Amino acid sequence: MAQAWTKSDWRNKPRVQMPDYLDADALGAVEAQLAKYPPLVFAGEARKLKSSLAAVSRGEAFLLQGGDCAESFAEFSADTIRDTFKVMLQMAMVLTYGAKVPVVKVGRMAGQFAKPRSAPTEVKDGVELPSYRGDIINELDFTPEARIPNASKMLQAYTQAAASLNLLRAFSTGGYADVHQVHAWTLGFTEGEKAAKYREMANNISAALDFMKAAGVTQETAHTLQSVDFYVSHEALLLEYEEALCRIDSTSGLPVAGSGHMIWIGDRTRQPDGAHVEFARGVQNPIGLKCGPTTTPEDLKVLMSKLNPANEAGRLTLIARFGAGNVGEHLPRLIKTVKEEGANVVWTCDPMHGNTIKSSTGYKTRPFESVLREVREFFAIHASEGTIPGGVHFEMTGKDVTECTGGVRAVTDEDLSDRYHTACDPRLNASQSLELAFLVSEELSSLREARERAAG
Ligand code: PEP
Ligand code: CO
Known about the structure:
The chain is of the alpha/beta class. 41% of the residues lie in helices and 13% in strands. It has one domain (9-177, 227-455): TIM Barrel, CATH 3.20.20.70.
């Protein structure tokens, strides 16, 4: 039986990675204000995502989760949101082709503002200041004032999240997401000389779309060709914000995080007895749990029973992030634990956070090759364990940034300084993201073919 829970119980648990607000009155006023605002997402939507993730856990759908490492107030614009949304739809179409199952699309958007940091302070030229913790908490500028946690930033984050969701809802249903249009953008990518190797798959998708048209499936008759379900997610790190947006679902009478459809617990905040697990266990939303090299089978067992006591399919997504070359060492023992417990989980691969390096030119970057290699290792291990590689989780943007190296439109160490815009970790750009989708799609096709062969 799940233990009794209230949305404030996390306050009695040890907390890490959260700011100490100096002005308690200002913090209280912001919390009271947010608690009066409408939720950003609705319980029925979170339920629908959970049932789609249940399909992912059974291998009947595939999860694509992606977006900024940290959303930024300064970079916020309609174009930024549109471009990330657009490239995610392109990726989803390419992945659907390989997997032959629907792709569940979840943005790291409309709430991905708070960041865990590896060190509490940062030193530059002999000056030591508190670390930047994301735009919802403090500012990136390297001055003492900028680094003071300011509770009113939560209101700005809420406003930006609401505006982002408003736009995403319009893009999802307003014809912008039409499959034919999405595919036309992808064909543009494969015209590049080096991307020509992806043209065959793109042409096959064209043929499938032409066939549907000939068979009478048109935009008018098939509503699903014109609109998509698009969900939003973020790391539930700043618990004052999460608590203030927690609501009671009028249908079930149970608590729901109103801050996003899916929330996840980071690799640095997953202490089984800590504040973050305590908050997440009580809300009905789908929950993600980052699993890194230090995740032990014992911890995972406790976390699974706390976060999903009823073993509900779609409730818990394990986001593996071990780093290329390390998956074989860590993933099998966690898969073993999941099997022993008979736990229903979605397994997804975050090939970003274990592959961050410093470039020869001094930038924090991630090589495309390492990202791809980790995904391939993840697929290979699931194939040998007979378990389901349910999805991928990328830090990416629809913009043409130069933050990760490699890809067919190669970004070199020297190029990194050109358009390095991230407020936190390096993101795949639009072309690198789409290229990865083609490569993951190939993995998914071979997996499917092997399964079909085995089934005779
Ligand atoms: C993140 O997803 O941005 C992140 C900080 O990841 P992790 O908790 O896995 O390090
Ligand atoms: Co990150």
